[in-house]
Prior knowledge:
The chain is 26% helix and 26% strand. It is an alpha+beta fold. It has a domain at 24-103: Phosphatidylinositol 3-kinase Catalytic Subunit, Chain A, domain 1 (Ubiquitin-like (UB roll), Roll). A hairpin with a 2-residue loop joins strand 3 and strand 4.
Amino acid sequence: MMESKYEPLIEKKKKEKEAEEDEEIIVKVIGFGDDDEDDDVEELVLIPLKKTTPLVSLKRQVNDLLAVPSHTYRFFFEGRKIANKDTAESIGLADGDTVYVQLKSEGLFGGGGCALF
Protein backbone atom coordinates (compact mmCIF):
# COMPACT_ATOMS: atom_id res chain seq x y z
CA MET A 1 0.00 0.00 0.00
CA MET A 2 1.34 3.40 -0.95
CA GLU A 3 1.90 6.02 1.75
CA SER A 4 -0.17 9.16 1.39
CA LYS A 5 1.64 12.46 1.01
CA TYR A 6 -0.27 13.55 4.13
CA GLU A 7 0.96 10.66 6.28
CA PRO A 8 4.07 12.49 7.62
CA LEU A 9 1.94 15.53 8.49
CA ILE A 10 -0.61 13.35 10.29
CA GLU A 11 2.16 11.63 12.28
CA LYS A 12 3.69 15.00 13.18
CA LYS A 13 0.30 16.28 14.48
CA LYS A 14 -0.19 13.10 16.55
CA LYS A 15 3.23 13.53 18.17
CA GLU A 16 2.55 17.21 18.90
CA LYS A 17 -0.77 16.31 20.52
CA GLU A 18 0.84 13.59 22.67
CA ALA A 19 3.60 15.99 23.76
CA GLU A 20 1.01 18.65 24.65
CA GLU A 21 -1.02 16.15 26.71
CA ASP A 22 2.07 15.14 28.69
CA GLU A 23 3.12 18.74 29.27
CA GLU A 24 4.28 19.38 32.80
CA ILE A 25 2.78 22.28 34.71
CA ILE A 26 3.59 23.84 38.08
CA VAL A 27 0.66 24.20 40.49
CA LYS A 28 0.63 26.42 43.59
CA VAL A 29 -0.85 24.80 46.69
CA ILE A 30 -1.94 26.97 49.62
CA GLY A 31 -2.93 25.53 52.98
CA PHE A 32 -1.99 25.17 56.63
CA GLY A 33 1.63 25.54 57.63
CA ASP A 34 3.24 23.65 60.47
CA ASP A 35 3.99 26.65 62.66
CA ASP A 36 3.25 25.59 66.26
CA GLU A 37 2.28 29.11 67.32
CA ASP A 38 -0.31 29.74 64.61
CA ASP A 39 -2.17 26.87 62.94
CA ASP A 40 -3.73 29.24 60.41
CA VAL A 41 -0.43 30.07 58.71
CA GLU A 42 -0.78 29.73 54.96
CA GLU A 43 2.07 28.03 53.17
CA LEU A 44 2.76 28.08 49.48
CA VAL A 45 4.13 24.94 47.87
CA LEU A 46 4.90 24.53 44.19
CA ILE A 47 4.13 21.06 42.82
CA PRO A 48 5.05 19.91 39.30
CA LEU A 49 2.66 17.51 37.58
CA LYS A 50 1.60 16.37 34.14
CA LYS A 51 -1.72 17.51 32.70
CA THR A 52 -2.94 13.94 32.23
CA THR A 53 -1.87 12.52 35.60
CA PRO A 54 -4.72 11.86 38.05
CA LEU A 55 -4.65 14.51 40.77
CA VAL A 56 -4.50 11.88 43.49
CA SER A 57 -0.73 12.19 42.91
CA LEU A 58 -0.90 15.91 43.80
CA LYS A 59 -2.79 15.02 46.97
CA ARG A 60 -0.19 12.41 47.90
CA GLN A 61 2.67 14.86 47.40
CA VAL A 62 0.99 17.47 49.60
CA ASN A 63 0.12 14.88 52.25
CA ASP A 64 3.74 13.72 52.30
CA LEU A 65 4.94 17.30 52.74
CA LEU A 66 2.47 18.02 55.53
CA ALA A 67 2.97 14.61 57.16
CA VAL A 68 -0.75 14.47 57.90
CA PRO A 69 -3.25 11.73 56.96
CA SER A 70 -4.96 12.41 53.63
CA HIS A 71 -8.45 11.98 55.07
CA THR A 72 -8.01 15.15 57.14
CA TYR A 73 -7.84 17.50 54.12
CA ARG A 74 -9.90 18.45 51.07
CA PHE A 75 -8.48 19.95 47.90
CA PHE A 76 -10.27 22.63 45.84
CA PHE A 77 -9.75 24.40 42.54
CA GLU A 78 -11.97 27.36 41.65
CA GLY A 79 -14.41 26.40 44.41
CA ARG A 80 -14.81 22.82 43.16
CA LYS A 81 -13.66 19.84 45.20
CA ILE A 82 -10.94 17.88 43.40
CA ALA A 83 -11.65 14.17 42.99
CA ASN A 84 -8.84 11.61 42.90
CA LYS A 85 -9.61 10.70 39.29
CA ASP A 86 -9.58 14.33 38.08
CA THR A 87 -6.65 15.46 35.95
CA ALA A 88 -5.33 18.98 35.49
CA GLU A 89 -6.62 18.81 31.94
CA SER A 90 -10.11 17.62 32.92
CA ILE A 91 -10.70 20.46 35.41
CA GLY A 92 -8.89 23.20 33.49
CA LEU A 93 -5.94 23.46 35.87
CA ALA A 94 -3.12 25.30 34.09
CA ASP A 95 0.47 26.27 34.79
CA GLY A 96 0.61 28.71 37.72
CA ASP A 97 -2.95 28.04 38.96
CA THR A 98 -3.64 27.67 42.67
CA VAL A 99 -5.13 24.69 44.51
CA TYR A 100 -6.46 25.32 48.00
CA VAL A 101 -6.28 22.83 50.86
CA GLN A 102 -9.06 22.86 53.44
CA LEU A 103 -8.89 21.12 56.78
CA LYS A 104 -11.88 18.85 57.35
CA SER A 105 -13.68 19.54 60.59
CA GLU A 106 -16.26 17.38 62.30
CA GLY A 107 -18.30 19.84 64.28
CA LEU A 108 -21.57 19.56 66.13
CA PHE A 109 -23.43 19.09 62.86
CA GLY A 110 -20.75 16.95 61.20
CA GLY A 111 -19.70 19.39 58.52
CA GLY A 112 -18.15 22.66 57.87
CA GLY A 113 -14.44 23.00 57.90
CA CYS A 114 -11.99 25.77 58.25
CA ALA A 115 -11.23 27.52 54.99
CA LEU A 116 -7.61 28.31 54.41
CA PHE A 117 -8.17 31.12 51.95
